[in-house]
Amino acid sequence: MEQLTKEQFIKTFKAQLHTDYLVDNNEATAEEHFRTLGKLIKQYVMSDWLRRRDEIVKEQKKTAYYFSIEFLPGKMLQTNLLNLGIYDLVAEALADINVDINVLVEAERDMALGNGGLGRLASCFMDSLPTIGAPGFGNGIRYKYGLFKQRIVNGYQVELPDAWLPSEGSVWETKKPHSAVDVKIYGSVYLAPQEDGALKPIYENVKTLHAVPYDVIQIGFNNGVVNNLRLWDVELPEKYELDYQTLADRRRVEDITSFLYPDDSSRDGQAMRLIQEYFMVSAGLQTIVASYAKMHLPMAKIHEKVAVHINDTHPAMAVPELMRILMDDYGVKWDDAWATTCKVMSYTNHTVLSEALEKWDTGLFKEIVPRIHQIVGEIDRKFVKEWAGKVDTGIIDRTRIVQNNQIHMANLAIIGGHSVNGVAKLHTELLIEDVLKEFYVLFPEKFNNKTNGIAQRRWSQIANPGMSALLDDLIGKGWRSNIHELSKLEALLTESDVQSSFYQVKQANKQKLADYVKKTLDIDLPIDAIFDVQVKRLHAYKRQLLNVMHIIKLYQDLKADPGLEMTPRVFIFGAKAAPGYHFAKSVIKIINELANLVNYDTSLNDKLKVVFLENYNVSLAELIVPAADVSEQISTAGKEASGTSNMKFMMNGALTLATLDGANIEIKDAVGEDNIVIFGMDKDAVYAHYDKHDYNSRAIYDSDPIIKRVVDAFIDGTIPNTHYEGHEIWDALISYNDEYFLLEDFTDYAEKQAYISALYQDKNSWQAKVIKNIANSGRFSSDDTIEGYAKDIWGII
Ligand code: 73E
């Protein structure tokens, strides 16, 4: 963008307020101020945005398209200002006219078109792609309602719709009606032989949807590059309006882009979800192929200019859909279409949980996307034929796409692409050795690892201005553009004034969070206590319950001996449970009632506090993460593919208390064993139990009085105001043999927690570890991760 002065900014800002809202600056609402600033930002980048589009066309740059059913940007104002390099100027200019930039920041609604780590990763990539200058665009759905808003009522989670989208639309998007395309679903299709021997698909009774794109700006950091996140909305096609005569028909169409499915681990088997997947895949690919066609290059070589990434299995229909478009719309023959499709497509697996590996009933699939069903059948048939006689038939039976009347989307994505990656070293190893091992026999060359990363600018400069200013003082400002410069801190680990400066920053961040907790929950938090944080989706494998068990133990210890010496602790939780996930909701209830129990018990002398923060989302994370002393990453080893909050906490100077799972292992490698606290079984120990079937939680319960006392607290009335929840938990732990091995890991966990309490007393040693963590967090930058994708998988840089 052009050089901007404060005076120019103030002038245009005021003028825009007049034009849009007919108000003077001092009468405008925060919302009006925010939208006006957003609009100016869009104007500032417009020429860069257009130039980007033109240069990609003119230079025929190979472009990657990141297809994802989720994007979770949160708020965009600060990121956009920072990346444009005008944050300070705008903040000062606004202050000059008595507008507080923080009030504008608050006025923006979180864009929560994602559930958790998977969607947030996609958004970190959207920030990093333009930052490294790579032509990489997003493709997704413009949900009218994002992830539900969580309220806690009487300790229970209540889900409310998240109407994030103002009636005027998001300020960051541009509607592109002229780029709309039609997507066909339902009906039937048969293949009519043509004179030249080709088969032409003839559709009957289809329903046509009108897909309208909204392009959202993605601004690179200080480099003039603006990429695009294309989100599709559905409209009723005027041409086919007779197909939708009743209000109910019309509503059904509108609903296609109404809701994000609020499930982080298992799919909701609704036809609507399948339609959503096909809708965004088809609309995206039609546009991509059409723009490639404008280059007048051979269709069978589309892989030389286009890469399509399948983020988790949800967009896996991209494989048959690209085949369909190439064959049916552009006349490419099957073999050529298949060869190029496999080179275009690549896939990331995000989880080993079998319930999250999508499978669709063939009947439903055939009903909704009949032509895609045909093509998938043919891909499957050819796959079986190709491998027959070359490998064991068992392998073919288990890797083929169609099995027992189900379509296995991961199999489709693997067979139809050239790359399969996991999201942390251990996770990729597990894919190769276990979950996808038979695919590894067939296609070893496809497998690779890309450890997740985080957009460091948001998780340091924006979320933690106090720490950022300190870093500027200590190591200069270079780290802001080159995060690896954080390693300069290595020379300062033991300097006591540096240590105390980091301590001061942490205390100030803790105070900010404490103020928020006071305001929202009316609980007083002592900031000299250890702030021990676990924020993530609520899931049994993430083991929030292990954390709860430890809190119960501390409570029981303190009740038994009120004079017990203990470093005061504040346990902070934030977590949404999938609405249909009964067990997870019971854990939320238990945490809230445990909080009520301990927070108001004066005999505990403020040594123990428990806080459950309602409606955990990206904005709240930006407040919580910088305030944490301890980062809880305590999943059963082998279950958490990577985790990304672990990286955010580390970068903000929290010590990680972790199992050897996901990216925790790489954090340990980065900081060394002395600067992370590891406990519990590793993946091999967990797998040994699976192999030998020898785990017996009841035996542990019967033989360990401390564990028995803790587990019984769920049912013996210790936690008041609970009903079936405690029994449900007790049963999961004892009657159903504790699927996630909490009891086995408990003793080590409690011991390591005690170690942390002691360590915190030794401020110098603690702070040295804190600084060591920050110094080594640069390697978890999503700029580096995405560079790996761009070079190794997509070949775009
Ligand atoms: O470990 C995280 C990982 O850091 C993993 O659980 C999460 O993805 C993160 C980013 O790689 C994830 N989400 C889903 N699967 N894995 C998922 C599955 C189905 C629907 C929505 C999300």
Automatic annotation (TrEMBL):
Family assignment from sequence similarity: Belongs to the glycogen phosphorylase family.
EC number: 2.4.1.1
Protein name: Alpha-1,4 glucan phosphorylase
Annotated InterPro entries: Glycg_phsphrylas (IPR011833), Glyco_trans_35 (IPR000811), Pyridoxal_P_attach_site (IPR035090)
Pfam families noted in UniProt: Phosphorylase
Enzymatic class: transferase
PROSITE patterns noted in UniProt: PHOSPHORYLASE
Annotated source species: Pseudolactococcus paracarnosus
